[in-house]
Amino acid sequence: MTFKYKNVYVAATSTVVGPYEKKGPLGDYFDKDYSDLYCGAKSIEQAEMKMQKDSIDIVLRKAKCQKKDLDLLISSDLSNQIMASNSAGKCIGKSFLGIYSACAGSAEGIIIGANFIENSQIKKTIVTVSSHNLASEKQFRNPTEYGVPKKETSTFTATGAASILLQDEKTSIKVESVTIGRIIDCRENDPNNMGAVMAGAAIDTIRTHLRDTKREASYYDLILTGDLGKYGKEIVKDYLWQKEKIDVRDNLEDCGTILYDLEHQKEVHAGGSGPVCSALVNYSYILDKLKKKELKKVLLVPTGALFSPVSLFQKKNILSIAHAVSLEAI
Amino acid sequence: MDKTYDDIVQKQNKGAKSTKKTYLDCFVSFFVGGLIGMFGEWLVEKYCLLFHISRSDSMAYMIITLILIASFLTALGIFDKLAARAKCGLLIPITGFAHSMTSAAMDARSEGLIHGLGSNIFKLGGIVILYGIVSAWVFGLLRYLVGGLS
Description:
The structure holds 2 protein chains of 2 kinds.
Chain A: E1 2-4, E2 9-17, H1 19-23, E3 32-33, H2 44-62, E4 72-76, H3 83-92, E5 95-98, H4 105-118, E6 124-131, H5 133-140, E7 156-157, E8 160-167, E9 173-179, E10 184-185, H6 194-213, E11 222-225, H7 229-244, E12 252-254, H8 255-259, E13 272-273, H9 275-291, E14 297-301, E15 303-306, H10 309-313, E16 319-322, E17 324-329
Parallel strand pairs in A: 2-3, 4-5, 4-6, 7-13, 11-12, 11-14
Antiparallel strand pairs in A: 1-9, 2-8, 6-8, 9-17, 10-16, 14-17, 15-16
Chain B: H1 3-16, H2 19-51, H3 55-75, H4 78-86, H5 94-108, H6 113-120, H7 125-147
Helix pairs in contact in B: 2-3, 3-5, 5-6
């Protein structure tokens, strides 16, 4: 399902990161960074809450907005019952929607917010996502300090929070269209190979988006998947070319492989992951390029792996979803 | 998804796994595990001489020492980095067991001493304890059936 928008613009974005992301190649693009994973809070969960609040404050400041100008906050994260998001919602004190589609949360939020704005129901909304490396390791995998050697295909949950402020007043970047993805089952169940789990969802959404909009893949200067890692990225490229004859071999990149320096930051293995991974790259580096008109048309395709530790231990397949958001510089 | 997808995934997985690296990891694990064994043996000898205790008592002291060192390194965040280099060499000996308990305890500490630390400390270590006892019982029984009580 694809919608086109006439009236939705990006006012500002903000990014807050942890130490690993700061050390990466995009280090200079981020608005704020913490050198400690606890960010001065008492626990890692509270650190994530703090980063989300920081990112909302920064995006309001950058857009020269007050809290009272804001109509709606849409927020997403990975923690149990999305507590980091709920806590950010409390601080803003405005209408709040907490959503979950794992690492595709940023796109789902933009789709919901953009629809409200297009229908003139609201004027301004902030979409926030966050994730914390230690908090998600603790929840989804072994205890955080349990440093077993990991597989080459495993990805590293990014630490940080990122916000985007959407509005109906014209700016230089427009939300042009969006595609709502389907839940895909690739019959994969290895949490250490999320690229293979989520590549299927990215393929399906890119294919649907191009079909619905009757566009060629070359229409976009860049198609950015969320957190497939270096192996997952190749799966998307190979499959789309072999099976669908869609050529994205030159204009598809993966945010997980841009956020970190895969050569020197060996701890990330195949790349970054988490809801904030794609948002950190898109809201800093990519938005900057759009503003400078170095890129004109970009398709963001964040991908999410949908599973819980329970479904995993009950030997259920890991499902995946991807939503697409097309941004254009005007 | 379809067969084409499965084939591409398999190809990528093969690319990610290098046999050379697996052999190297095995060697590193063997070497580091062996070194820890040697260090343990050295401790046993030293404790025997220093405290004038039997070898079996000295063994217990050696295990306690290794657990203490491993837990301390885990708490400082050093064990994690060492394990990434030493592969399974640090995780198979008693040091890995101590590491699993300390890291679980550190994780759950923020939820308090009862519901956090108390109920989570055996999250990984408990598996080893339970199945260690079960398998000891099974092998004990087998030994009795084969060799009798003597």
